[in-house]
Amino acid sequence: MSELKGRVALVTGAARGIGAASAKALAAKGAKVLVTDVLDGSETAGAIDGAYFRHDVTSENDWIAAVAEAKNQFGGLDILVNNAGVFWMKPITETALEDFRRMQQINVEGVFLGMKHAIPAIAARAQQWDGGGAIVNISSVAGISGSPLVSAYCASKGAVRLMTKAAAMEVAALKVRINSVHPGIIDTTMGSQLVEDFAATGAMGGANETRTQLAARHPLGHFGRDIDVANMVAFLASDAAAFSTGAEFLVDGGLTAN
After folding, report:
1. Which pTM value belongs to this model?
2. By the 8 A CB rule, do 36 and 23 touch?
3. Helical spans, DSSP H, in the chain
4. Bridge pairing between strands 248-251 and 79-82
5. Count of other CB atoms within 10 angstroms of residue 60
6. Are 177 and 132 in contact (CB under 8 A)?
7. If we measure between CA atoms, which residue out of 49, 17, 6 comes closest to residue 37?
8. What is the CA radius of gyration of the chain?
9. Cα dist. 152→45, 97, 106, 250 in Å?
10. Torsions phi, psi for 155 (to 5 deg)
11. Could you count the other beta carbons within 10 Å of the beta carbon of residue 208?
12. Angle at 79 between CA 77 and CA 83, to 5 degrees
């Protein structure tokens, strides 16, 4: 499959989980991929004949360097996947201000900086593609509706959702499309952390019982896989999604339909 042949993608938080799966899905469709992360992403990059660049998404200088690296390695930039993010649970009355700010710094400012610095590079090449250039911001079902114990996370992912819409309107004339993806619980390291954190509250019993109950909240009856989200990312990056921008795409097993 070569729907993305000739295109260059930058995927953040791509050392593992949804980011790694997205990098592989884009590469499978023909894109050259720059894998970025504060963790070592060389294994992901090696699996797809891509390149790895150490990248702290909260650093503006790192963003400038990452976009430059995509140009140096592959000649330009056409696709950005803002995937890097963190998650933790805590009652709002017990959440330290510095912890709240840190979550917003990574989950919100990281996406803002990514769009700020990638848009000019993507726009410079967008006219050559039928669907233009593309940015995919990974939000969450927590950016659609609230949930107890995750106020800071909901705040961050809700911000990503609306920032996506605003930015999409700004750059539509440049032929750059921006959409958000909202996963339910995905069977990744972060998904396992969510199960452990819920189990620690004792509200659903032990870890196995908690996992069963959380999976049952999805009408499809199970957690998602990283490839489920990655397939949506690859679709939104392609010309098949040429008329989609400023929109939110749910990959949640029906969770928010309930």
Report:
1. 0.96
2. no
3. 17-28, 42-47, 60-74, 97-104, 110-123, 151-171, 189-201, 207-216, 226-237
4. unpaired
5. 14
6. yes
7. 17
8. 18
9. 32, 10, 12, 21
10. -60, -45
11. 11
12. 120
Look-up of token digits 């590079």: 121
pLDDT tens digit at each of 258 positions of the chain: 679 999 999 999 999 999 999 999 999 999 999 999 999 999 999 999 999 999 999 999 999 999 999 999 999 999 999 999 999 999 999 999 999 999 999 999 999 999 999 999 999 999 999 999 999 999 999 999 999 999 999 999 999 999 999 999 999 999 999 999 999 999 998 888 888 887 888 878 888 898 999 899 999 999 999 999 999 999 999 999 999 999 999 999 999 998
Q: How many residues does the chain have?
A: 258
d(CA 208, CA 105): 33
If we measure between CA atoms, which residue out of 27, 29, 25, 20 comes closest to residue 84? 20
DSSP class of 238: S
For the chain, first and last CA: distance in Å?
Answer: 36
Structural domain boundaries in the chain: 8-182+224-251, 185-223
For 223, half-sphere exposure in the C-beta direction (CA atoms, 13 angstrom radius) is 17
Residue 233 tokens read as 């990312």
Catalytic residues: 153
For residues 142 and 81, what is the distance between their CA atoms, to the nearest angstrom? Answer: 19
Pairwise CA distance, residues 69 & 75, whole Å: 9
Instruction: Identify which of 175, 179, 129 has the alpha carbon closest to the alpha carbon of residue 6.
Output: 129
Contact in structure between 152 and 192 (CB atoms under 8 Å): no
Residue with tokens 């899905």: 25
Orientation angle between helical segments 189-201 and 207-216, nearest 10 degrees? 110
- Report the top-level CATH class of 8-182+224-251: alpha beta
